[in-house]
Specification:
By secondary structure, this protein is α+β, with helices and mostly antiparallel strands. The protein has a single domain, classed as Glutaredoxin, CATH 3.40.30. 46% of the residues lie in helices and 9% in strands. It has a four-stranded mixed sheet. Strand 3 and strand 4 form a beta hairpin. Helix 1 packs across helix 9, helix 4 runs antiparallel to helix 5 and helix 4 packs across helix 8. It is globular.
Length: 245
């Protein structure tokens, strides 16, 4: 298995994230809001890295997310629902819809494998968005292979080999490599953003902070990677494949 190479003429932003993490969905949208307004956004490449909050979790379609939170946090059902209600409000502030009553508590390993498969086809961000929506909004089982194939198809993936990939040890190893890299970097929670392998940002920060770090990292990156800006009035030309205009 080989990932498509990251273009050398782009600033990379690596984001460690898990599908079942509500702050990862929130952080994705806030980062995107900053990136959409960033003048150098065409020179930024986003890479989604795998992280599992509960790697030993067994998918259980009979338990709701509120009860699951009670179990892992040792809190009451009222407090669990209050936490989720607050998260829902935060999501709505940036246009996200969290339907906590519909969430299926599922292991996310196969979903991360799908993300690695999608990266090879340049569709990782589209798949990431659809996975998060599937989990938090639509209440779909992200540990179910037919569901993941459907998500991949809807994101425009070439589905040849996808079913096999979802059970391929090479892709599982790629997920584990991301998790190991996070451990080496001292990442203990997600989302975690690494800009140009120099600047780390933890959590679903506000767009203003992401904008600041984007500007800072881009200016440093640009010194070693000049961006060619076409000037107006360019004349007619031919390309190496003999297309002339």
């Amino acid at each position: 298995m080989k990932h498509s190479e990251t273009p050398t003429n782009q600033l990379t932003v690596e984001i460690w994230s898990d599908i079942m993490c509500p702050f990862c969905y929130l952080g994705k949208r806030k980062f995107e809001n900053a990136l959409d307004n960033f003048t150098g956004k065409e020179s930024v490449s986003v890479i989604w890295k795998s992280f599992q909050l509960q790697p030993d979790l067994k998918t259980d379609t009979s338990i709701d997310i509120h009860t699951y939170l009670c179990k892992i946090k040792g809190i009451g059902i009222g407090q669990a629902k209050q936490i989720n209600e607050h998260l829902g409000k935060s999501g709505r502030s940036v246009g996200l819809e969290y339907n906590f009553d519909k969430i299926i508590v599922a292991n996310t390993l196969k979903a991360h494998i799908l993300l690695h498969f999608a990266r090879e086809q340049g569709k990782q961000n589209e798949v990431k968005e659809k996975l998060l929506r599937a989990y938090f909004t639509d209440g779909r089982n992200v540990d179910d292979i037919p569901t993941l194939i459907d998500i991949g198809n809807n994101a425009g993936l070439n589905s040849d080999g996808l079913s096999e990939a979802l059970q391929d040890d090479n892709y599982i190893d790629a997920v584990r490599e991301d998790i190991y890299e996070a451990q080496q970097l001292g990442i203990r929670g997600v989302p975690y953003f690494v800009f140009d392998k120099k600047y780390g940002v933890s959590g679903a920060q506000e767009p203003a902070l992401f904008s600041e770090i984007l500007e800072k990292s881009f200016n440093g990156w640009k010194k070693n990677n000049p961006v060619l800006t076409p000037e107006p009035g360019n004349g007619q030309s031919c390309t190496p494949d003999q297309i002339c205009d």
